[in-house]
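so im writing up the methods section and need the Sugar ABC transporter substrate-binding protein record in one place, dumping it here so i stop losing it
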Amino acid sequence: MMRRRTTLLTGCTALALAFGATACGGGGPVSAGGGDQALSGQTVSVAGVWSGAEQKNFQKVLDAFTEKTGAKTQFVSTGDNVSTVVGSKIEGGNAPDVVMVPQVGVLQQFAAQGWLQPLSPAVRKSVTANYAPVWKNYGSVKGTLYGLYFKAAHKSTVWYSPDALDQAGVKPPKTYDDLLEAGHAVSDSGLAAFSVAGQDGWTLTDWFENVYLSQAGPEKYDALAAHELKWTDQSVVDALTTLGRLFKDKQLLAGGQKGALNTDFPGSVEKVFGPKPQAGMVYEGDFVAGVAKDQFGRKIGEDANFFPFPPVGGGTAPVVSGGDAAVVLKDGENAKAGMALLEYLATPQAAAVWAEAGGFLSPNKKLDPATYGDDVTRTTAESLIAAGDSVRFDMSDQAPAAFGGTKGAGEWKVLQDFLRDPSDPKATAAQLETAAAKAYKG
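--- predicted struct ---
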């Protein structure tokens, strides 16, 4: 593959000039101070799924990197199908330097293709010092660290209208049974209990994962995520049965099952926090707050709040997370400057830029919680950090994309069919196993 010749300073020399002497292998974590423009003239191309407000906020991080190093950046939004877009760019000789990968399965795929550079000693040292080991594990393939988790999501949060719960006379529930009971109280007071985004299959996988992690436990969760446990296992049938108690109760779903299947994620938030509320609660990750605030003007902590996804069947409360890992492609024209970007992203100073802007959680333990702009986000972030190694990464994001990340196929479609008709959890488990076996074999 022909590549443009560059004048980039090589290896440690460039990083040391850009960030200070501690940027190299024997030193400490990268310093965000300094900024002597040592990478002036270089351009780092970055690909990721973000668009809209997320892209604008990430651009602020990239701009801070430019200010400190002189390296310009160019961000390209890939849409949801990161692996296809990046693969096409590599084949076309136009590989980005850095990719923000939203799925563990895609990171593993990229590593298996030989596309990724192992992360530098400085990044590895920062990750070891500043992150719970679970984030290092999810960023590694066969013991080699390829991915730096910059942005995290807390997917064990149920968001609610305080007015709706007050009107129903209920408080945030402490168990899954209490959650359904509270839902009936909300329904009796005039609103549906839950707005479910069934049109987006990924939200249904998140529902399942929280129930399964709490009910079956982390060991089985890990085994199922790796497909070392079949989806026909009784623990899967039990979790589907538990979830089906909600899905089959038309009193609990805004618009019933048909309405849920015609509601996408933004629409599900609108049904709770929009100008004409139809439901009292919506389950999804911490990013619900951004939609409620930015699109509907809700004040987080006042007229939009959350409670932790409650424990199921005597289990512990689940903490399911997701996240975007920065990786450096071998075929990028400025891969060395790309690694310098990752050394910056590993610092709490880089995380602080987006944390101050909002709509962001960092897995970096060294980020001062006071940086977050509101108490609810701060509490969510602190919960994620406190969970440590009990955090489990989104299971569908760990799976091959054909099973866990493709619209109209695999787990997304099977769970949509289950929402439509939750009467036979055992048959649904069998369908999930058929789809998983095909995808993992491929």
